[in-house]
Write a structure and sequence with these properties.
Helix content: 55-70%
Strand content: under 5%
Order of helices and strands: HHHHHHHHHHHHHH
Mean pLDDT: 87
Number of helices: 14
Shape: globular
Length: about 280
């Protein structure tokens, strides 16, 4: 039997530039989730408010004398806030198991044993959740703006409100990043996705309840910055140049959001680790 030389040979395959592993994790996760009927059903359900808003915008353009149908920047802000309930369910459904399932299957060690860093791993997982949140916030909101231009047959409204495009984009990404970062941090704390979903729900409602109690005791709405949903609402209103609904100016909620993101990053840095093998 001939013996072939198995010595060193130069690699002749295609070399993939480093730093793209997060994209592989993201695309694979998105494709896998899109095969779930429950997720597709939730996506379709979340687009029902878009259809209602599209009809209202059509009515506003064709019946300008009806004042309550008038399209204003607040129309798009109201739409994004209406989507908050779908953002919550999407975050729980998609995000609860993103890291928890890997921890349960001991896949985290497999990921990090390859040339994939923690930053790439977290970025890939975060991209999955952010993508689905943007599909129910940014995408339909932008389409509503396009429909307004198409129904009106002019760019007058758009040119008079040029800040709308960056406001819709910034507000949608703010919602997605805050929900995604906090959910990933919680998902890294457990290997049970149901428990993670309960933790996220508790975070939302506990922060709201804490604000309600302090407001009731002190009679001051300044404590609204303790509520994560209120922080996002306040900053979102400021982006759309609308009057703030709580007693706190937007910088304080922005600081609270930054603190939440830093805390989430700290948790992820501590919890997303490979197993060190000592020879």
């Amino acid at each position: 039997m001939p013996i072939h030389d198995q010595g060193y040979r130069r690699y002749t395959g295609r070399r993939v530039p480093r730093g793209r592993a997060w994209l592989v994790i993201a695309t694979t996760g998105i494709r896998l989730l899109l095969t779930r009927r429950n997720l597709v059903g939730l996506l379709l359900l979340s687009w029902l408010p878009f259809l209602v808003r599209a009809v209202l915008i059509y009515g506003a353009v064709n019946a300008p004398q009806v004042s309550f149908l008038a399209v204003t920047p607040g129309t798009f802000r109201q739409f994004l806030q209406q989507q908050d309930v779908f953002v919550f369910f999407m975050t729980v459904y998609v995000g609860a198991g993103l890291i928890a399932n890997d921890r349960r299957a001991n896949a985290l060690q497999l990921y990090l044993s390859k040339p994939i860093g923690r930053v790439e791993y977290v970025a890939g997982k975060l991209t999955i959740l952010v993508t689905f949140v943007l599909l129910i916030t940014w995408v339909p909101a932008i389409l509503l703006l396009v429909l307004q231009i198409a129904f009106a047959g002019s760019f007058t409204f758009f040119l008079n409100n040029l800040f709308l495009l960056p406001a819709i984009t910034a507000c949608s990404f703010l919602v997605a990043i805050v929900a995604g970062a906090s959910m990933l941090a919680l998902s890294s704390l457990s290997n049970n996705s149901r428990y993670v979903g309960i933790l996220y729900t508790a975070l939302i409602f506990f922060s709201q309840a804490l604000f309600a109690v302090l407001r009731g005791v002190t009679g001051d709405r300044w404590w609204s910055w303790l509520s994560m949903p209120n922080d996002v609402i306040q900053v979102g209103d400021a982006m759309f140049r609308l009057p703030l609904r709580n007693g706190t100016a937007w910088p304080m909620p922005l600081v609270a959001i930054a603190a939440l993101l830093l805390a989430s990053g700290f948790v992820l840095e501590r919890r997303v680790r490979g197993v060190e093998v000592v020879a």
